Amino acid sequence: MGNMGSGCRGFGLLVGAFCALMGVKTALAVTELPVLIQNGQVLSRLSGESSSERVYRCVVPEGAKNLTFVSASGSGDVNVYIRRGAHPTLQQFEFSSILPGNTETVRVETPVAGVWYAMLHGFGAYSGVRLRMTYELPAGRVADPVLSPGPGRLAGGVTLSMRAPTRGSVIYYTLDGSEPTPLSNRYRLPFRMETSSLVKAKAFLADGRASGVLDAMYETAPAWPALELQSGVPLYERSGNRGSVTYFKIPVPAGRTALKVDVSGGLGDTALYVRHSYFLSVAPRYVNGPGNQASVVIPKPTEGEWYVGLRGLSDYSGVAITATLAEAKPDLIVWADACRPYITTETFAPEDCAVVEGNVVAGTRRLLRFTTDTRNIGLADLILGAPEGDSRFEFFACHGHYHFKEFASYRLLNLQGELVGTGNKASFCLEDVRQWDPRAPRRENPFNCYYQGLHMGWSDIYDSGLPGQWVDITGVPPGDYFLEVSVNPAGIIQEADYANNTSRVRVSIP
């Protein structure tokens, strides 16, 4: 978790211990929320101190070849290490280039699809370095169809349109989950769907070449009555057409401090309407932020039913909506949409930090990795303060800083809710990483590992590539499971609401 200003966090043992003894911040920090680098993109003017570690992230599609990272220019001496699925370290990496100077090239001819990380390690201090990532797609590949709006949960029906990016290709589709062939429905014009459907679409060229199969699940429900929201519990994957309105409602008891409604994420453009009692003629509160980023706070809301309308200003998909009966206290939730679990197989030596800290046993293990995004949706900052001398914290020598104990728990459950496996990462450095609420003020002094907490409207993110961001699934039988992530499970931190601290994500283990 954290960003480039996180002091000593993420260091090796010797550097971390030195920082702890000196009691000062330094630029030697891992970029623990990695910068995304896309195919063909060049990151310029990169710099770092001697022994610094900067991590970058890319997503490699199926069928890609010759994944290549190239560093060049500038002064000093930098080395490049890459690894699939996890942050590289000097001890754990898959490929590297450690030539003198800044001219380094790392190439993987047939990379496995998924998330790859690249680390720039300062063998000496460096500055002015450029980093470029490229990969090649197979020649003549037919692009997958593009659907609008994207898949998700809709109120009422949806008018679905399809586009074939490869010139001359024709789209065939099915609505029953079967594989599309040139004998299936041919797409010509947008069409209406009124029932839940698994849409499968495939683009074909006249010479027989074809794209991959695009799977898209559209779940429809009646547009009315309005879907009831639970305080602080997000609803994800909302989709709709331009001009459509999806209605929600939330009952507000008397004497509440505020009603807060947020929408975020996804593609397209939406507007938000909030009003007391749908049938009253009073004008609603209207919010139209950039894209799908909008937030509205109703101070001292009138008792009764409050209605929320999500209107599509364009086709939209992947939008999340949250209504909170907010109090003047912090309120922590797990943003389940950020988990994005995936499976890796990794080997750990007895001296690895993850083994020393009890996150995993030595040897080759199969891991279910995921990201933990903790948001403060309350109307007050969470202030934990300086950790030194506070019994709620413990010092981790491998990382060179203090962690808050028992901040989160990770569990793997079968579909009957029975425990199958647990994650052993029990302590965290809690700090401001990303401003998720557009209304939240920018902070001149964000919380960090030296003075911990989480401002309202901000999130703390532990990237899936970090140590401990997993449940060990070695020996777990194939099947469908729930990944359960809870924050503040023991109620150590005072919050406005403890009922919204747990999220579950369904996962399939092959």
Description:
It is a single chain. The protein has 510 residues and is an all-beta fold. The protein has 4 domains: 34-136, Jelly Rolls (Sandwich); 146-220, Sandwich (Immunoglobulin-like), CATH 2.60.40; 227-329, Jelly Rolls, CATH 2.60.120; 334-509, no CATH class. It is built from 2 helices and 41 strands. Strands 1, 2, 3, 4, 5, 6, 7 and 8 form an 8-stranded mixed beta sheet that branches. It has a 5-stranded mixed beta sheet with strand order 10-16-15-12-13, with no helix packed on it. It has a 5-stranded mixed beta sheet with strand order 17-19-24-21-22, with no helix packed on it. Strand 31 and strand 32 form a beta hairpin. The two termini are 29 Å apart. Mean pLDDT is 88; it is low at 1-31.
Produce a short descriptive summary.
With 510 residues, this protein is mainly β. Helix content is 3%, strand content 48%.
The chain-level structural class is mainly beta
Number of helices: 2
Low-confidence stretches: 1-31
Portion in helices? under 10%
The beta-strand count equals 41
Strand content: over 45%
Radius of gyration: 24 Å
Mean pLDDT: 88
How would you characterize the largest beta sheet? 8 strands, mixed
Compute the number of structural domains: 4
Give the N-terminus to C-terminus distance in angstroms: 29 Å
Assembly category: single chain
Basic shape: globular
